[in-house]
Amino acid sequence: MKKYIAQIFLFSAFIFSIFLQINCSKNEEAKAMSPDEIVAKGEYLVNLGGCNDCHSPKVFTEMGPMFDTTKLLSGHPSEAKLFPVDTSVTNSKWMHTSMDLTAWVGPWGVSFAANLTPDGPTGLGNWTDEIFIKAIRTGKHMGFGRGILPPMPWQNYALLTEDDLKTIFAYLKSLPAISNKVPDPIPPNMVAQSLNIKGKM
After folding, report:
1. Out of 31-35, 74-78, 121-125, least confident range
2. CA 16 to CA 69: how far, in whole Å?
3. Which band of pLDDT confidence, cut at 50, 70 and 90, is reported for residue 64?
4. The dihedral of CA 76, 82, 88, 89: what is its sign?
5. What is the pLDDT of residue 4?
6. Which residues constitute the domain of residue 2?
7. Are residues 51 and 93 in the same domain?
8. Residues 6 or more apart from 119 whose CB is under 8 A from it?
9. Contacts of residue 59, Cβ cutoff 8 Å, sequence gap at least 6
10. Three-state SS string across the chain, please?
11. 147 and 93 inside one domain
12. At residue 126, what are phi and psi to the nearest 5 degrees?
């Protein structure tokens, strides 16, 4: 029996050592990435995650809407007028979106895609990777503020590893800084009032 237990212990220790070697190899590989490789991986993950779909303004062509490559990931254009919408959508299970997918209306009110470029006053220029990771992990603006609203699927991105999120943030910080002050979200009980005051919808 003692021999059998010893064999199990040795086998378990062997498996654990392999696990450690694999993880060490992964960590060494991550540490060995150059700054350019880190940014490239972040760009890959951003494209794979469809971040441009909502966070990049669009130009409309005969082939349909295309990303405006001069304003990538700069969020809902500050100069854009809000679209006409039936405010009853805030009391329903439906949602509306702008033609360029940067503004959304639903039971949560009106949400606008954030400026993810490294502009200081209007984007992520004053963020650190710790703040970025905390925001994604908690679903809170800057990790402690208001909730991140739909349709942002932060719950999915929260499943990414810390290294993956760091590469995404590195890519975002590498983008040209675009000054674009995205409007604050409009809560459901203020949507109708905002329409009357601003006359934008």
Report:
1. 31-35
2. 48
3. confident
4. negative
5. 40
6. 1-32
7. yes
8. 125, 177, 178, 179, 180
9. 65, 66, 67, 68
10. CHHHHHHHHHHHHHHHHHHHHHHHHHHHHHHHCCHHHHHHHHHHHHHHCCHHHHHCCEEEECCEEEECCCCCCCCCCCCCCCCCCCHHHHHCCCCEECCCCCEEEECCEEEECCCCCCCCCCCCCCCCHHHHHHHHHHCEHHHCCCECCCCCCHHHHCCCCHHHHHHHHHHHHHCCCCCCCCCCCECHHHHHHHHHHHCCC
11. yes
12. -95, 5
Residue 169 shares a structural domain with residue 77: yes
Please check whether residues 9 and 43 belong to one and the same domain.
no
Number of domains in the chain: 2
Amino acid letter, 41: K
CA distance 41 to 149: 26
| Token pair belonging to 82 | 């809000």
Token digits of residue 112: 């606008």
Residue 194, φ and ψ in degrees, nearest 5: -65, -35
Of 24 and 187, which is predicted with more confidence? 187
